[in-house]
Amino acid sequence: MPFDSADIMSQALAGTTFVVVDVETTGLSPRDGGITEIAMIKVRNGMLWEEYTTLVNPLTPIPYEVIALTGIDDEMVADSPTAEEVAPAIAEFLGSGVFTAHNAPFDLGFVNSTLAKGKIERIQNPVLCTCKLARRLLPNLYSKSLGPVTKELGIRNSHRHRAAGDAFATAQVLIHFLRRLEEEFDVADVKGLMRFQ
Length: 197
Known about the structure:
There is one protein chain. This protein is an alpha/beta fold. It has one domain (5-189): Ribonuclease H-like superfamily/Ribonuclease H (Nucleotidyltransferase, domain 5), CATH 3.30.420.10. The chain has helices spanning 5-9, 64-70, 74-77, 83-94, 104-117, 130-137, 146-153, 163-185, 190-196; strands at 18-25, 35-44, 47-55, 98-101, 127-129. α6 (130-137) crosses α8 and α7 (146-153) packs across α8 (163-185). The longest helix is centred in the C-terminal third of the chain and has 23 residues, at 163-185. The radius of gyration is 16 Å and the shape is globular. The mean pLDDT is 95.
């Protein structure tokens, strides 16, 4: 994904495209498993304006405990595209946007693994973690995981542990946090945002 990293870092927050990503997976490590579902939502100027979501066939049985958590089973993904097949669409949708997720290292690891299966280079985009932002902006909250953060901010997530539901909730968290950062901390550009997190 070729782009000018320095150019993105100097962009005003208001003009920046954030791509909020959430994945459901077969396990905790991309080395041992894969994505079963991915959702990506573009956020710009405080608005949600484009979404990509798909189930993914991990080509391996989905563990029972994962099925119990997400409701995604082997039958649901049987006719879905594989990681290799969805990799180009993921790369294209992400483009030069800021990769954003709640606990970003987890989602980033699985997305990079998926891209590798499609013979696409690893993400070079700036990476923003709303969980890290929560640690700074909600220091007294007992847990910074997505559920407690959304509850604290009055954001409803009716599809918890499904990629689209969690991505939508994370996008709402992002919009709230960006507004606070601009109003209370004078964070005006991507460089300042990355430094703050």
